[in-house]
Amino acid sequence: MKFDTPAGQNPIDQLKVVGKATDRIDGKFKTTGTASYAYERHDVVPNQAYGYVLGAGIAKGRVRAIDTAAAKRAPGVLAIVTTLDVPKQGLGVMNVANLFGGDEIQHYHQAIAVVVAETFEQARAAAFLVKVDHAPGAGKFDLAVEAKAAKPVEGGSGEGSGGGGEDRHGDFEGAFGQAPVKLDQTYTTPDESHAMMEPHATIAAWQGDTLTLWTSNQMIAWGHGSVAKILGIPKENVRIDSPYIGGGFGGKLFVRADAVLAALGAKAAGRPVKLALTRPLIINNTTHRPATIQHIRIGATRDGHITAIAHESISGNLQNGRPETAVDQTKLLYAGANRLTAMRLAHLDLPEGNAMRAPGEAPGLMALEMAMDEMAETLGLDPVEFRIRNDTQVDPGKPERPFSHRDLVGCLKRGAETFGWNRRNPTPGQVRDGHWLVGIGMAAGFRNNLLMKSGARVRLDPAGTVTVETDMTDIGTGSYTIIAQTAAEMMGVPLDKVVVRLGDSAFPVSAGSGGQFGANNATAGVYAACVKLREAVAQRLGINSADAVFADGEVRSGNRAVPLGQAANAGELTAEDAIEYGDLSKKQQQSTFAGHFVEVGVDADTAEVRVRRMLAVCAAGRILNPKSARSQVIGGMTMGVGAALMEELAVDTKRGFFANHDLAGYEVPVHADIPHQEVIFLDEVDPQSSPMKAKGVGELGICGVGAAVANAVYNATGVRVRDYPITLDKLLGRMPDAA
Amino acid sequence: MRSFTYERPSTPAEAAASVARNPEAKFIAGGTNLLDLMKLQIETPSHLVDVNGLSLDRIEPTPEGGLRIGALVRNTDLAADPRVRTDYGVLSRALLAGASGQLRNKATTAGNLLQRTRCPYFYDTAQPCNKRQPGSGCSALDGVSRQLAVIGASEACIATHPGDMAVAMRVLDATVETVDAKGTERKIPVAEFHRLPGDRPEVDTHLKPGELITAVTLPAPKAGTHIYRKVRDRASYAYALVSVAAILAKDGTGHVAFGGVAPRPWRVEAAEADLRKGAKAVTDRVFAGAKPTEHNAYKLKLAERTLTAALNQARA
Asked: Given A75, A646, A654, which is nearest B233 (Cβ)?
């Protein structure tokens, strides 16, 4: 189905199932332990052996020799494959670091061997007997140092944000020079780890030349092609199955060492192999969100209209790596005729930087929205009012291009009213509650809506059960449920008459999960397939499809009402289609918007920051399932608190790795850190986005939260910290004297 | 994890003898730290002596009016004991500030004293660490050291003792009771229990090979407000950046020990005379001679301000 004109009235608009707060249909499997994650799939193939991955102990250089003699003699060992045994393997989609093969070490904990044994404990013990002779080389590990040599770079995050090395509109320098009110500040964000609950894990089994991988992967079609490319085998000989994923946040967009080494280990051992990456390997072997140094300049008139805005970001990566696209939202969020955005990339020999939840916007808004808070204060304007005053309904760089639907102002006004923004004292450091200094802050949230082709197959059996098959994934987001809701709405059946099967490369290719593009596109693909199935049903029943009404498990036309399943009496009906997009998103800018409001307490003595209240108001098109959408947003808000206050991969700039490589050292918020979180969705639809009239929302939840927390800390203390995370050591020396 | 043999002796002296005989043997009680370290082959005992069956799990009053806490009393039970809650609040609060409910259910009193540092380089077997591999060097000195020691450390090691319980024990003037292979009993003041690293950071305590902790004894209760203030980057489940264990009267006089700053709970009794003058007077003396790194110098200011918070709390 080609979607190239805005959606009119369609069966989804009935909203009998879609749009209702709905429990996850997979929830009972997850709460009873019957949803099997990759490492737990003991039943898919017999005789599974265990693999253990060994990572390089240097950050840069070569592996001279690997002595496996003692390890091979260890109890239970079936096979060992080292990086010196195989040539450098190919690269998969979106990745630049070599996953395995050859003697070159590009980063710390690059995989250099897999040990396969009868038990996990035996494999791990044997791995400690592998003796590696490293030849360390000199590397570059310090972004602050290498930033000086950073070069302009164009590029995209692969999840919707991107741009040129330098993009200009109007005359930024001239307008900034003449602006009566100016801001010129630099902000930094650290490297971050996805820290998803489920580690990267794979079971691999060969049958002759055919490879099956039961794994944990967000993008099945990318993974399918990548495995074939990396291993140098035909795509037809690979199957990937990933029905449940315990979190990914972008860390599982790609095929990682677990899949490659399970496959190579299984081949060497002549048996199926299961393995999971340990947490230290997840942190230094896989990908992370790269640190940024962001320079922001804003010029405005005295009454608070922005005349010039520049956002420049420097990040680092391995050779051929992409930049963190932190400047992208600044092209679209606020008005102003004279604009400059630029990205520069420094060469670093740290592990590969890549997409993490809302790549670009998440760190970009942490800087931009703090700058907006500072600018509002300089102007003597309320931060909410300053943003409203600079709202734009068109792409400010291309004024002929409007937003499809933009209600940032609605988010900010509703949020301010609900949160009690008018009770905020604009002078910082004034509000006390016992030993707490109390502050309130806000920020705008922004994230683009991406349109991607997405396919599905739907089947109808004589019992009237509708089965949906698509390689779409559910990474904890609720994909199963919104897909079931879509099929139920389209076919006029209750939810329990829908079966959803996901994550198998044998199914039609979907958009996959990333860049908050999964929900709208994958359900639109199911919509397209259901339109075809409705036609097939009508034809089978001899009903004019234009007259057919699908409701209550029946197909009705005039006075006739036939049970839906009857259409399949002569044999199962199958329909397959994909949603494909025209140029609607080129003519009009599709984005999602939020207002984030946060109250914090800062301990007057110790400068510990604790979040007290949070609110997000989101404008993101039709909300398909308010319950799972809320879960997505509060998850994003929680991640935003982590980014603001504690998350940081600590770089050992001498040895070249992230030193805090476990979940004791890399701190993310615990329950005690997260207070009541309120989420409001504005009631809206966007007919430009798809027949679903929905947009992404899963990443909007994190976008802007970090700055709202930071602005609240400033309001509480009067101390402005521009280097995230805002840990107490950065506040301590400047805290107001305790009363 | 390397293969090991395992035994369950029936008396403390037998247990001590068994470990004394074999330099590669270790005691195991709750195992909350040792098992993790064995999985990573940071600890590689060839023989484990399980002391869980030695009936060292009672809390009893002493003739001196104190409490004798068996070595195997679980952290959860110790924190919840009514006598501890009433008379040794600083200890109960310190225990509850540590780890998680699940870990406290397993962790023992003696094991808590013996937990090893959480320095990231101690945990990464590819990196030099004098505590893990004597003579290999200290990566933390010019590495990531935000969490590490500001005082009591050496050129060989800047690791901290990570615990909370021991800091409270220190301000309470607890005594560690042990037995050795010959059945000889010994009493070690908790102040002299942990070693400073010097040039032998691989040795954490003054225990002799095979010497088994049987109990920790608390003297008669000390009057005052019992405070344990643990400062960390998140609200729970994190090691202290700085902690203060204090027993303070309303006029500010009393006793104070610091955690998260040194290879052992850090207390300078002489400085307590200055408590009436305020926090800075005390911490200037307690931390005289401190050698912080660029990353952890903030701990000196934090220690002062955390003590201020404790003094405010005692006065309130």
From this structure: A646
